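TL;DR need C-alpha coordinates for one chain.
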Amino acid sequence: MATSMKCEITSHDNAVLSQIFNPNLPFLECEEETCNTPVFIEAPPSQAVLEAKELELQGVKLAETGDIDGALNLFNQAVAKAPEWPSAYNNRAQAYRMKGQNEEALLDLSKAIQLSNGIGKPAKQAFTQRALLRKLAGNDEDALEDFKRAAQLGNEFAKQQIIAANPYAAMCNAMLGEVIHKIRTGEQSTN
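>> reply
TL;DR here they are.
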Protein backbone atom coordinates (compact mmCIF):
# COMPACT_ATOMS: atom_id res chain seq x y z
CA MET A 1 0.00 0.00 0.00
CA ALA A 2 1.46 3.34 -1.04
CA THR A 3 1.43 6.25 1.34
CA SER A 4 1.70 9.90 0.57
CA MET A 5 3.84 12.27 2.50
CA LYS A 6 3.79 16.03 2.63
CA CYS A 7 7.25 17.41 2.09
CA GLU A 8 8.09 21.06 2.50
CA ILE A 9 11.47 22.43 1.51
CA THR A 10 13.02 25.74 2.37
CA SER A 11 13.64 28.43 -0.22
CA HIS A 12 17.38 27.76 0.18
CA ASP A 13 16.88 24.05 -0.62
CA ASN A 14 14.74 25.00 -3.60
CA ALA A 15 17.48 27.34 -4.85
CA VAL A 16 20.12 24.60 -4.42
CA LEU A 17 17.99 22.11 -6.37
CA SER A 18 17.48 24.71 -9.08
CA GLN A 19 21.26 25.20 -9.28
CA ILE A 20 21.82 21.44 -9.58
CA PHE A 21 19.33 21.03 -12.41
CA ASN A 22 20.16 24.38 -14.08
CA PRO A 23 23.89 24.91 -13.44
CA ASN A 24 24.26 27.70 -16.01
CA LEU A 25 21.67 29.89 -14.34
CA PRO A 26 22.59 32.20 -11.48
CA PHE A 27 22.13 31.07 -7.89
CA LEU A 28 19.20 33.25 -6.85
CA GLU A 29 18.20 32.51 -3.33
CA CYS A 30 15.08 34.54 -2.73
CA GLU A 31 15.12 37.10 0.01
CA GLU A 32 12.65 36.84 2.86
CA GLU A 33 10.42 39.63 1.58
CA THR A 34 10.23 38.18 -1.95
CA CYS A 35 9.87 34.52 -0.96
CA ASN A 36 6.34 35.03 0.21
CA THR A 37 5.25 37.15 -2.74
CA PRO A 38 1.67 36.27 -3.59
CA VAL A 39 0.90 34.62 -6.89
CA PHE A 40 -0.45 37.02 -9.49
CA ILE A 41 -4.08 36.16 -10.13
CA GLU A 42 -5.98 38.35 -12.54
CA ALA A 43 -9.54 39.25 -11.77
CA PRO A 44 -11.99 38.67 -14.60
CA PRO A 45 -11.35 41.49 -17.07
CA SER A 46 -13.72 44.41 -17.16
CA GLN A 47 -15.29 45.58 -20.40
CA ALA A 48 -12.72 48.40 -20.54
CA VAL A 49 -9.86 45.91 -20.24
CA LEU A 50 -11.35 43.70 -22.95
CA GLU A 51 -11.55 46.73 -25.26
CA ALA A 52 -7.99 47.73 -24.32
CA LYS A 53 -6.76 44.21 -25.12
CA GLU A 54 -8.34 44.42 -28.57
CA LEU A 55 -6.65 47.79 -29.17
CA GLU A 56 -3.35 46.27 -28.02
CA LEU A 57 -3.67 43.38 -30.47
CA GLN A 58 -4.34 45.80 -33.31
CA GLY A 59 -1.39 47.92 -32.16
CA VAL A 60 0.96 44.94 -32.10
CA LYS A 61 -0.09 44.03 -35.65
CA LEU A 62 0.63 47.58 -36.81
CA ALA A 63 4.02 47.58 -35.08
CA GLU A 64 4.90 44.30 -36.80
CA THR A 65 4.24 45.96 -40.17
CA GLY A 66 6.48 48.89 -39.20
CA ASP A 67 3.70 51.40 -38.50
CA ILE A 68 5.01 52.44 -35.08
CA ASP A 69 3.08 55.73 -35.03
CA GLY A 70 -0.18 53.90 -35.74
CA ALA A 71 0.65 51.33 -33.07
CA LEU A 72 1.47 54.07 -30.57
CA ASN A 73 -1.88 55.71 -31.30
CA LEU A 74 -3.70 52.44 -30.53
CA PHE A 75 -1.64 51.85 -27.36
CA ASN A 76 -2.51 55.39 -26.23
CA GLN A 77 -6.17 54.54 -26.73
CA ALA A 78 -5.72 51.30 -24.76
CA VAL A 79 -4.15 53.21 -21.85
CA ALA A 80 -7.00 55.74 -21.96
CA LYS A 81 -9.62 52.93 -21.98
CA ALA A 82 -8.04 50.96 -19.11
CA PRO A 83 -5.54 53.15 -17.22
CA GLU A 84 -5.06 50.49 -14.53
CA TRP A 85 -4.13 47.76 -17.06
CA PRO A 86 -0.32 47.19 -16.94
CA SER A 87 -0.08 45.39 -20.28
CA ALA A 88 -1.09 48.53 -22.19
CA TYR A 89 1.83 50.42 -20.62
CA ASN A 90 4.24 47.58 -21.51
CA ASN A 91 3.17 47.65 -25.14
CA ARG A 92 3.26 51.43 -25.36
CA ALA A 93 6.75 51.39 -23.80
CA GLN A 94 7.90 49.01 -26.53
CA ALA A 95 6.58 51.37 -29.19
CA TYR A 96 8.28 54.34 -27.50
CA ARG A 97 11.52 52.37 -27.40
CA MET A 98 11.24 51.57 -31.10
CA LYS A 99 10.88 55.31 -31.79
CA GLY A 100 13.91 56.08 -29.61
CA GLN A 101 11.78 57.77 -26.94
CA ASN A 102 13.48 55.96 -24.07
CA GLU A 103 12.45 58.35 -21.29
CA GLU A 104 8.78 57.87 -22.13
CA ALA A 105 9.35 54.12 -22.31
CA LEU A 106 10.97 54.11 -18.85
CA LEU A 107 8.01 56.01 -17.38
CA ASP A 108 5.54 53.52 -18.86
CA LEU A 109 7.56 50.53 -17.66
CA SER A 110 7.72 51.91 -14.13
CA LYS A 111 3.95 52.47 -14.28
CA ALA A 112 3.39 48.87 -15.45
CA ILE A 113 5.51 47.60 -12.55
CA GLN A 114 3.57 49.76 -10.11
CA LEU A 115 0.17 48.66 -11.45
CA SER A 116 1.15 44.97 -11.40
CA ASN A 117 2.54 45.26 -7.87
CA GLY A 118 5.81 43.87 -9.24
CA ILE A 119 4.36 40.39 -9.82
CA GLY A 120 3.09 38.33 -12.72
CA LYS A 121 3.76 38.41 -16.45
CA PRO A 122 3.31 42.19 -16.84
CA ALA A 123 5.98 42.84 -14.19
CA LYS A 124 8.31 40.19 -15.63
CA GLN A 125 8.16 41.88 -19.04
CA ALA A 126 8.42 45.40 -17.64
CA PHE A 127 11.42 44.61 -15.43
CA THR A 128 13.22 43.04 -18.40
CA GLN A 129 12.48 45.93 -20.76
CA ARG A 130 13.42 48.51 -18.13
CA ALA A 131 16.66 46.65 -17.39
CA LEU A 132 17.61 46.77 -21.07
CA LEU A 133 16.90 50.50 -21.27
CA ARG A 134 18.87 51.16 -18.08
CA LYS A 135 21.78 49.11 -19.41
CA LEU A 136 21.65 51.05 -22.68
CA ALA A 137 21.85 54.29 -20.66
CA GLY A 138 24.92 52.99 -18.78
CA ASN A 139 23.02 52.47 -15.53
CA ASP A 140 24.37 48.94 -15.02
CA GLU A 141 23.64 48.74 -11.29
CA ASP A 142 19.91 49.46 -11.63
CA ALA A 143 19.76 47.32 -14.77
CA LEU A 144 21.16 44.37 -12.82
CA GLU A 145 18.56 44.88 -10.07
CA ASP A 146 15.77 44.85 -12.67
CA PHE A 147 17.23 41.74 -14.30
CA LYS A 148 17.28 40.06 -10.88
CA ARG A 149 13.62 40.91 -10.29
CA ALA A 150 12.69 39.63 -13.76
CA ALA A 151 14.71 36.45 -13.16
CA GLN A 152 12.90 35.86 -9.87
CA LEU A 153 9.67 36.08 -11.85
CA GLY A 154 10.97 33.43 -14.26
CA ASN A 155 12.43 35.37 -17.20
CA GLU A 156 15.15 33.18 -18.74
CA PHE A 157 16.72 36.04 -20.73
CA ALA A 158 17.13 38.02 -17.50
CA LYS A 159 18.82 35.03 -15.87
CA GLN A 160 21.32 34.87 -18.73
CA GLN A 161 22.00 38.61 -18.40
CA ILE A 162 22.80 38.16 -14.71
CA ILE A 163 25.31 35.45 -15.61
CA ALA A 164 26.86 37.68 -18.27
CA ALA A 165 27.17 40.54 -15.77
CA ASN A 166 29.14 38.39 -13.33
CA PRO A 167 32.86 38.90 -14.08
CA TYR A 168 33.81 35.54 -12.52
CA ALA A 169 31.24 33.71 -14.63
CA ALA A 170 32.47 35.52 -17.73
CA MET A 171 36.07 34.54 -16.93
CA CYS A 172 35.08 30.90 -16.31
CA ASN A 173 33.05 30.80 -19.51
CA ALA A 174 36.00 32.21 -21.48
CA MET A 175 38.38 29.65 -19.98
CA LEU A 176 35.95 26.80 -20.61
CA GLY A 177 35.44 27.99 -24.18
CA GLU A 178 39.20 28.00 -24.71
CA VAL A 179 39.57 24.45 -23.35
CA ILE A 180 36.71 23.19 -25.53
CA HIS A 181 38.25 24.88 -28.57
CA LYS A 182 41.63 23.22 -27.85
CA ILE A 183 40.00 19.81 -27.44
CA ARG A 184 38.08 20.22 -30.71
CA THR A 185 41.18 21.28 -32.64
CA GLY A 186 43.33 18.55 -31.08
CA GLU A 187 45.63 20.95 -29.23
CA GLN A 188 44.68 19.32 -25.92
CA SER A 189 43.72 15.76 -25.10
CA THR A 190 40.71 14.79 -23.02
CA ASN A 191 42.82 12.65 -20.68
